[in-house]
């Protein structure tokens, strides 16, 4: 993906989270820097398969306080399959939720997801070998 498109994805992501894109540089490395109060910063190195750069996204922080929280995102990036910038940013955001003073994502996501989902009524059918008495 062209760097300009990656910057656009990052800017759109920033519009829905407390992070700001504070720096985007393509000359030496395809790097996007993000910042949020209270002093949470990280950067993403973007893949550049066209010129022999890195093959996968990489997240890091200059702040030692932030590094332990980025481990979850690093593990996610290292897992099977290629990831998109949006997937990486969302994983970083999830990792930083405690530092941002936000509630646990799992509970909130579960409630938001199920709030708008109407459950289908279960059909009255028997499972093989199980009596419904």
From TrEMBL:
<dbReference type="InterPro" id="IPR027892">
    <property type="entry name" value="Maturin"/>
</dbReference>
<dbReference type="Pfam" id="PF15167">
    <property type="entry name" value="DUF4581"/>
</dbReference>
<protein>
    <recommendedName>
        <fullName>Maturin</fullName>
    </recommendedName>
</protein>
<dbReference type="GO" id="GO:0005737">
    <property type="term" value="C:cytoplasm"/>
</dbReference>
<dbReference type="GO" id="GO:0045654">
    <property type="term" value="P:positive regulation of megakaryocyte differentiation"/>
</dbReference>
<keyword id="KW-0963">Cytoplasm</keyword>
<keyword id="KW-0217">Developmental protein</keyword>
<comment type="similarity">
    <text>Belongs to the MTURN family.</text>
</comment>
<dbReference type="GO" id="GO:0023051">
    <property type="term" value="P:regulation of signaling"/>
</dbReference>
